[in-house]
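Researcher: I'd like a structural prediction for the single chain below. Treat it as a standalone chain; there are no partners to consider.
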Amino acid sequence: AFKAAVLIQRWYRRYVARLEMRRRCTWRIFQSIEYACEQDQIKLHNFFSYLMDHFTPSSSKERDFISRMLISGESVKEAELEKYCDYESMEVPDSYTGPHLSFPLLPDHATALLEAFKQKQQLHARYVLNLLHETRKHLKQLPNISHISTCYSEEVTVCGDLHGQLDDLFLIFYKNGLPSPSKTYVFNGDFVDRGKQSLEILIVLFTFLLVYPNEVHLNRGNHEDHMVNLRYGFTKEVMQKYKVHGRKILKMIQNVFCWLPLGTLIDEKVLIIHGGISDTTDLDMLEKIQRHKFTSVLRGKKRKESNRNVEIQEINGEAKVEASSAEQDATTSPCAQSRPAQAPSMANRLEFSRWVRQTVQEQIERCRRLVDVSESEEEELTYSSFVSMTDLDAPCWTRQEEWKQILDILWSDPMPQEGCRENTVRGGGCYFGPDVTAKILEKYHLQFLIRSHECKQEGYEFCHNRKVLTIFSASNYYEIGSNRGAYVKLGPDLVPHFVQYQANKTAHTLTMTQRQGSTPFSEISRVEESAFRALREKLFAHTSALSSAFKAYDKDGTGRITLSNWATAVESVLRLGLPWRMLRPQLVRSAADGTLEYQAWLDDLAMEQRSREHIQSGLLEVIYRNRSNLETIFRIIDRDHSGLISFEEFYQTWKLFSSHMNIELTDDGITDLVRSIDFNKDGNIDFNEFLEAFRLVKQSQ
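Model: Treating it as a single chain, here is the predicted structure.
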């Protein structure tokens, strides 16, 4: 009997170990794909920055168009914003059956909103704009870092990312209670994107913020950024829900986002920020930054120096003195293939100025040769778009440092190693080690740091000797059952107490028999299947590159490679940092001799992904790989967010994009393309037609 018990225990431990290994592999897949998408977002903006820097307009119309593409996010004057987003002229029809708001708001308004949203009702656009106006007025009065105390409430509840998952917010309020004078909440950013009810979350949070301004605190996250919203769904959600007034609502939300505080301090001992810190994080500087100036930390803009006829190019708030970003990928900018040497010391500003001018001139010469532009046509770009560093005023350098401070606290992640280095996985912010955490905590007399920004399987996780706590409140973030959500409660002793949960509508509808039949194995299998489906899509999107990588290992042209070489080649192309040898059984049917017929494997991927029979697999691969970027580009061009772009906008955009793709198209060719893809002949291009244009041009190559 004893031996039997030991044997059963051994089998059970192996079973649990296998489940845990599968769970970790699944998690790695989801997280790697998510971070790769964030890298794509950064690269896309580098692409637009490259166009702004190097595309030579053939007319003033083209020059104006390029300038307009990326200025929609600029801060507008107070009076202009008030006039544009005027809500008082809007009438609420008698047929409206949704909730009503009147200001100043009362607790009953907040509870009525919660009930209305549970019933899938929609708040009228007049009330939404009115709420945003009042929220903006309140936020403008707040400091960059909010200071709260546990002396005035029994406890402080800190929530992490919600990402448009309203059910998680409902569950938090159900378990923990609504905000009140005795129940303080801190919501640590990333309220929007990915989920389908981001706007409802904003409305609920802003309402409680106005009802209980001393008990509800909102921090800005990296997704409270209109350029990020273009890619991850929030912009699209607002326009679908408020077709007529959606653009006004988006403009107002964009302005509200830049007024959100950057962090919160509890009892001057616990710092709450969305992303993390760096070795240069300066809380004193963060307290003084004009945060509303940074409508986005991802986008570039041009500004003119007041006393000179020159323009200083700023990308991500940083003064640019090179023709291309030093961090830009070579595939994004052909001019980036040759990197300038490291800059001389800033102590010698005159020397640095000469270095800048020489570098700029060299880069422009390379670009001129690439695009076959004459010197006279390029002349104004040589010195009119750049300025020597001796002419830069102090505020420009200050603004660069301020931008870095904000970027670091919104985008950074902790790492187990010592030190601080660039966050190459996300493409923004940095990785900071336990020594950096200890240094910052000691400098500002803090006990520990609370941050969000990363999905954790249990909803929370400690690191850096329990000095850094990650809290993530969106459950089922990747897939139903993939992770729990959590929030943390802090009392006067500042000891964290966690509450975990899993908001799952599907689980609520299961019968008792179905619930009893659910096992950890079946739950992991469901999540695992979703992860591998996403991974196979990623593999298919890089079929051509994978084929080339496989052939490099197939020196004799046998059509077969070893499984070890398969794993190495896949990682060299996708760069996801995944344990491919461990994942191989789920992706590859192993041959008896330990080799893989790689072309047959690639064909199987194509057969699995091919959803439209008339599109050849090569074209489908390109569309899979570029769809997210194309959709983001479409939304940037679609300045009024109507879901349509005009012929003129499409014409100018396609000239830019085709030049980036090295596709030669004449003006007549683009005009014919525009006419041919306007299938409904309404004079506008929708996204499906835009995608079709991309497909047609690639097909003609």
